Amino acid sequence: MHANVLQKACIQCGLCPTICPEVFHLPDEGGSAQAVTDEIPTELLSDAVAAAESCPTGAIQIH
After folding, report:
1. Is 57 strand, coil or helix?
2. Model confidence over 11-55: pLDDT tens digits?
């Protein structure tokens, strides 16, 4: 499974990297959240899904 952050929908609230910092991060120079491009490790999948479900704008897709 992979994570994708819809850049136009992201409001940079920082919730996703707080919940799952191994998969999501906010760039130091500002801007929308980003997800790792590799496949999400099985042991992190539940945290990544929790981050997606917690996103206030629904900007995160797990597929």
Report:
1. coil
2. 999 999 999 999 999 998 888 999 999 999 999 999 999 999 999
Name residue, tokens 């992979």. Answer: 2
Can you tell me the distance from the alpha carbon of 41 to that of 55, in angstroms, rounded to the nearest whole number?
A: 20
Query: Helix count (H) and strand count (E) of the chain?
Result: 2, 4
pTM of the predicted model as reported, rounded to 2 decimal places: 0.92
What is the set of domains in the chain, with CATH numbers? 3-62 (3.30.70.20)
Q: Residue 24: enclosing H or E segment and its boundaries?
A: strand 24-25
Question: Which two three-digit tokens encode residue 16?
Answer: 């996703």
Q: Which residue type, as a one-letter code, is found at position 13?
A: C
